[in-house]
């Protein structure tokens, strides 16, 4: 286990160590220096000349580092080539050595390289992770919280604790101050519990949905919001049978309630302009000290509803949940809403604005051509097949994930051969047979060739339950290995979403298109 000496860089030299460097700069022979200053009285063996030089140069390196810690690159450069070649050079070095010996312990600055304050091994790991300055390290810790070190390969918990304690000693400098939620392991067990708090404009800190209490003021908006809090908690609880949906609805509901309390408005009083303001807030939740923080236990201090600003696609998803919430409020209070069109107008605004903008047809065709261009990988060919089925035939992502080979048929006598898919949709209007366009059929064939899949019903090994689209490789996680062991496993709806979004990001690197605003659904709408 590393100790502080392995993690933190050595600091100021001792008086004896300064004497060693001074003697070497003045031209004294290394063995003479070793016998006078470096010899251990308990050691019977004399140092060799090589050993003496190595110890002296190690002290030289520490001296250079100490000079840089004090922003004295002139002295550091002077001692990079230690021994003087002239009396003038020797005199300058001795004078510089005398001046720097009078300095106290250096003070880290935000722009200092991590190598100035931490050991060589740790510094290399930090820099490999893109952490080059002390400010970079402080920023990472404040963004990620107590588990920040997990984002730096080969940094252990013990080294992280030493770093956090060291940063804590620099708290007098605002730029290097770590937030209260950055704790060492021993402090995590003592983390204060989060207590219930009434919703209101002057909240000291945010609380999750289960710890929200009705506002304590008697203002009309506050009394209405208190009643709505009960409705919202019941609305979220009704989704408990679907854990992912429940967590998503709970997260968006508590954000919306906290924001509404800060605005001094009830949910039913939200007008279209209020929802526009909330959408903008999701992309930039300020003040960040109140709203943002690293993920952590919901019942402990420093819980925050955001980790940071939401991307455009996440804002759209959040507003769809808010639309569902407002519809539920409308249905629960139809009598009063009949006298006011505020919530209906707000819902219409959310629904209209949450629909992704249609992509120009030429942009879609450019994307499809890029996917089909060579050289392409099996993953890219899978993305091409999925994108063509969306763009040419309007198939939905969820429907695409449900297709199996049993839904596919081919007419080999046709010229060229024609592929067909049987869509078993709930809607009568969508249910039926789809005749595949030639490029979609060709892309599917290439994908099946990559998978070595027998798609012809007369072929040996034909499996009717095999997925229409499936990954060639699976992630090396427990879930990935479990899915790979199932012969009929294929892309899930979320897997297809990720596949197409990743392809769009690579496409956007060489084309003038928006990355964040893209959703695979836009391929159907174009």
Plain-language structure description:
The protein is mainly alpha-helical and 526 residues long. The protein folds into four domains: 98 residues, no CATH class; 75 residues, no CATH class; 158 residues, no CATH class; 165 residues, hpI Integrase, Chain A (Orthogonal Bundle), CATH 1.10.443.10. The chain is built from 24 helices and five strands. Strand 3 and strand 4 form a beta hairpin. Helix 19 runs antiparallel to helix 21 and helix 19 packs across helix 23.
Main traits of this protein?
flat, two-stranded parallel sheet, 24 helices, mainly alpha, 4 domains
Structure summary, number of beta strands: 5
**Architecture of the largest domain in CATH?**
Orthogonal Bundle
Which CATH class of the largest domain applies here?
Mainly Alpha
Helix content range of the residues, please?
Answer: 40-55%
How many DSSP helices? 24
Q: N- to C-terminal separation?
A: 59 Å
Mean pLDDT: 79
Please report which band the strand proportion falls in: under 5%, 5-15%, 15-25%, 25-35%, 35-45% or over 45%.
Answer: under 5%
CATH T-level topology of the largest domain: hpI Integrase, Chain A
Largest sheet: 3 strands, antiparallel
Structural class: mainly alpha
Shape: flat
Instruction: Look at the structure and name the CATH superfamily of the largest domain.
Output: Intergrase catalytic core
- Low-confidence region ranges: 84-88, 334-343
- Provide the gyration radius in Å: 33 Å
Strand arrangement within the widest β-sheet reads 3-4-5
The total domain count is 4
